[in-house]
Records
---
Amino acid sequence: RKEVEQDPGPFNVPEGATVAFNCTYSNSASQSFFWYRQDCRKEPKLLMSVYSSGNEDGRFTAQLNRASQYISLLIRDSKLSDSATYLCVVNGMRFGAGTRLTVKP
Amino acid sequence: DTGVSQDPRHKITKRGQNVTFRCDPISEHNRLYWYRQTLGQGPEFLTYFQNEAQLEKSRLLSDRFSAERPKGSFSTLEIQRTEQGDSAMYLCASSLGGAGGLWNEQFFGPGTRLTVL
């Protein structure tokens, strides 16, 4: 089993849609969780950290479920500019394979 | 520009040659990471340093790969006797160290794209 696994995608959604990604992790002792965004042929950049109580940043909501060992990312009111690959990261260095999102007009 | 820089940006080499990549982290960051990324995959962890100490190295990393971070500043990643399977994007990132086993945001460089012919 991989340390971090993500929804395989790709996700193709219309503008304005709500889309959710999940990511599971195998190490129950994990303490730090992040979502990064990676545009085509660019380096990953932090989208948001994931806190135990869940956190929101504008249209983006991240949640952590320690009991089931997964994190999630919810994007509301999708924009064309949200098209990218979304990477979940556990304990700083364990990246998932990424989920590709394409938002269409 | 005070971000993470990597050099070279592109490297084409023949199988069997040695290559060395350099990474200059954000100056106040004490942690430095190396990753390898291939098309359609997330970054694969290779190794990381806290200051000049190499604290973890991936079990997937063969002994042809070596990394150094002398004086806790810039880092080099060397691949000896390159193979076609080494073709990938090599990413470097840096961060501040976290307290109590926590990890902070990593800032990535633009990467070095290696092509082994």
---
Amino acid sequence: QKEVEQNSGPLSVPEGAIASLNCTYSDRGSQSFFWYRQYSGKSPELIMSIYSNGDKEDGRFTAQLNKASQYVSLLIRDSQPSDSATYLCAVWLIGGYQKVTFGTGTKLQVIP
Amino acid sequence: ETGVTQSPTHLIKTRGQQVTLRCSSQSGHNTVSWYQQALGQGPQFIFQYYREEENGRGNFPPRFSGLQFPNYSSELNVNALELDDSALYLCASSLGTGGSYEQYFGPGTRLTVT
């Protein structure tokens, strides 16, 4: 089982719709969760961080965390073509040495 | 506030050669982590430096080594380059080493090994 799993996509949504990106993780002791956006050929850009169960909203983005289900998601409201990118889920795993582990990313395509 | 910078942007090396990549951390950040990102994959953790000491290492062989300097800038050195080392190398800086500290990435160095 991979430490951090994401559906590779592509996930296609029409402009203006809600895009829902999902991520599961294996280490039940994980406490810190991050979403990054990565445009093709560019480096990852931090969108959201979330540390406790529930929702965290920032503009059009909402991160949701459910530690019991080991599940974290990112909702993008009013999706725009400029949101088309790969979204990386990252988890800080407590076991062993400290490190942030990334999923392979979900490619999002927003269709005008 | 100055963001994370990396040099060079692109690099082409021959198998067996050695390479040094450089990173300047964001102003005020004392921790630098290095990642390797192959095409279509997520970034893979190489190692982290905090106060000039290696603070954690991923599953990479010893030919991957690093340094951190008193001004918190860092270098990644790779010896005996292999074709599979071709990737985007990312540096990320943060205010500290714990999981509550957000990491911010530089633009990356694209390394091609032929």
